[in-house]
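Tokens as discussed.
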């Protein structure tokens, strides 16, 4: 059995100081636990450098603003703290998790005077999925849960509460023997996987859903840049579920999954083809220091 995350060794940066890993705790009546007023980032370090460190910091601050609070440190200070935590843990290949949340001064829906806390943890975390799956591709269920209408949730924030339906979807998928789930949006269009963006290839053109009700991933933008650098046309558009029958290749992108091929989504099958393999290699090359990633801006 894997070691529980609260039992790891090392230190965590917590509200401006390093504390022993096992002592990085919050009270059970913290607002972030009860009312999901927490935001976070998932980042990776390669060769001792955090990939797109500042982009992730910027998104963390934007997510906090969307939740109605300000992180009590500068962006430069947070980026520096992430790098210091990586160094303190003595890791070069690692996962980096900053998280901010409302504290416990007030318990109720309204908690405007609560202290805003920030913690940063770093740990060794290899491939999100079994590396052998890169040869045959993941199998995805199609979730019954849908990404919400932007009028009902701060969908562009990386906020804890928005991942509740992701957990439910992934648990259901795994119970069926699948690796993950594809989620549709509130209109019934293809959206994303539970923690990654999705791309499809047809006739030499990459197609990916327009991120108007889910995160426009940092890895997603990187891969769009890498594809265009290869001369591949990338189209961001509405994709209907039935269109998946005509797509030739499919892959997921995200900090955790990096670039991972998909072999099947529900009844639809795809090959792990040349472009997917090429972009997997391009991404691995781009994340190695000095970082040479190409990011799509608009």
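Sequence:
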């Amino acid at each position: 059995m894997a070691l529980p995350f609260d039992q790891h060794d090392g230190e965590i940066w917590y509200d401006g100081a390093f504390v022993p890993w096992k002592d990085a705790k919050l009270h059970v009546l913290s607002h972030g636990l009860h009312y999901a007023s927490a935001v976070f980032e998932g980042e990776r370090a390669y060769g001792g450098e955090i990939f797109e460190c500042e982009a992730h910091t910027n998104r963390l601050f934007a997510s906090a603003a969307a939740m109605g609070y300000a992180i009590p440190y500068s962006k430069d200070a947070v980026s520096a703290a992430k790098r210091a935590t990586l160094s303190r843990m003595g890791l070069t290949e690692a996962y980096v998790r900053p998280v901010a949340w409302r504290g416990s001064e007030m318990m109720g829906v309204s908690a405007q005077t609560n202290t805003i806390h920030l913690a940063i943890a770093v740990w060794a975390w290899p491939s999100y999925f079994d590396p052998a799956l890169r040869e045959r591709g993941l199998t995805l269920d199609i979730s019954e849960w849908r990404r919400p209408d932007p009028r009902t949730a701060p969908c562009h924030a990386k906020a804890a509460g928005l991942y509740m339906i992701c957990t439910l979807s992934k648990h259901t998928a795994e119970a069926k023997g699948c690796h993950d789930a594809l989620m549709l949006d509130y209109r019934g269009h293809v959206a994303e996987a539970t923690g990654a963006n999705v791309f499809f290839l047809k006739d030499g053109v990459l197609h990916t859903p327009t991120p108007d009700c889910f995160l426009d991933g940092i890895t997603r933008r990187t891969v769009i840049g890498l594809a265009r650098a290869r001369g591949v046309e990338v189209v961001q558009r509405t994709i209907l579920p039935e269109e998946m029958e005509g797509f030739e290749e499919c892959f997921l992108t995200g900090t955790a999954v990096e670039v991972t091929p998909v072999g099947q989504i529900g009844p639809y099958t795809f090959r792990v083809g040349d472009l997917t393999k090429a972009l997997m290699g391009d991404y691995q090359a781009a994340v190695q220091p000095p970082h040479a990633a190409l990011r799509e801006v608009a």
